[in-house]
Amino acid sequence: MALMGVQLVVSLLAASIMQRMAPHCSFARWLLCNGSLFRFKHPSEGELCALAGKQMPKPSRRDRRQNGGGEPKPLTVPKDIDLHLQATPVNVLDALVLRFFLEYQWLIDFVVYAMGVYLFTEGYYCAVDASKEVNIGAIWCVLTIFFCLRTLYTLMSHYFRSEEGGERSVCLAFGFLSLLVAMLVLVVREDYLEFGLEPGFANLFNNLEGFAKQQGYEWSVPVTKLTVKLGLAVICAFIGALLAFPGLRLAQTHLDAVQMNADRPIIQVLLHASFLSPVLVLMLWVKPIARDFLANAPMGKTTITLIPSSTFSSVRLWVVVALCVLRLALTRYHLQAYLNLSQKWVEQIKREAGRIAAIDIQRKVTRVFCYLTVVTLQYLAPILLILFSTLALKSLGDFSWGLVPEVPGVTPVEAAIPTEAPPLTALGEDEDGDSMEDDVQAAVAQLSEAMAALRAVLTPIFFRGVFAFLAWWVAACQLISSLFGIYFHQYLMQN
Hints:
InterPro entries: Transmembrane_161A/B. By secondary structure, this protein is mainly alpha-helical.
């Protein structure tokens, strides 16, 4: 197995460029600061007093005594003043003070370079027969999935540290709901949901037993099918809790984006298609609806084949990637709809009676902008999870992008070939270079042996089940939470 190959060189080069170019050229900064997003500035106290028709009050001794000898009484203005917020483009200096901006910038930049490495790897595999090499692009995809989950966990931990406790209850409720749904999904037979989990785990356990016997150990895996499914259900509950607030936020930004583009029917159609795209992702793995129906579509008394069963897996990959690209293309509309919440809130308080503190107006307008990167991560992270799970499914599951009939195959279990240690040489000037070269070759041989043993245990059958189920489950969690968010914002908030 060639370990020190072209892929590793390109991977190291991409990591070096990402580290050096991040302070100077960042796609994450460009996404927020390219001039297409507009934030709203909070009004000053002088502007609020001018709109209220009075001058700035000066603190008196009586006010100071009433407030304990400290700060003066806060300025209040009528709620129905003619307040219009000033819109300004988001610039780099504004973005640097946003919450979780560093986490956002690092994740998005890593995703861009991971996609570049993956595209190079796919082109390399098309041009060269590299079946014995380690797929570096797939490793970048797995790392991206891990970093997206870690970022969502960081955001959820922020909600758990909230003093109010309402956010914590929402995450726990969605976690328990996801646990129940996952337990129902995992008992469905493969004839209806064709993830391939059961064949994948059976193959994994057989390979582990074979590897243990090859190493001279009499050992069997003490894991039952019920234990595996319970463990998967717990992981699914954790992912469901992570995707609770991203789904609720998606519902709010979707409704606001549709309302914001009321005079643009094409954009509205794309927004609705993007919002309902998880439904199509779910249907793609329901065998009677997707594979069986398209392979034997009823047409009167006869049946026609719309998509051959042998090419259905490739079509499914293309459809999921296209849906993810559609949702990524509509990012700006959702982010601008979120930023417009400031003006929407101002218009709402104008219809109310009474007075409001000026500091409350300033705090509310500023808070919307401060959480821009949080909302961006909540919108992008689920899409990236589905996208890179699909890319990893293609590479590690031994699928093809070509829409031609594929020959299903399983990577054979390769026995690890032991390598002999290099002979010891005497220390000397002429032999130092040869000794170092022999050490490097021995290290590469050991790494190659370890990777060969790993590939013998983790076969494409296992990866097909894991990443197909991960992509499907992320889409299911986001659909459940976003539909609940639609119900909450449309009905509960109005009543």
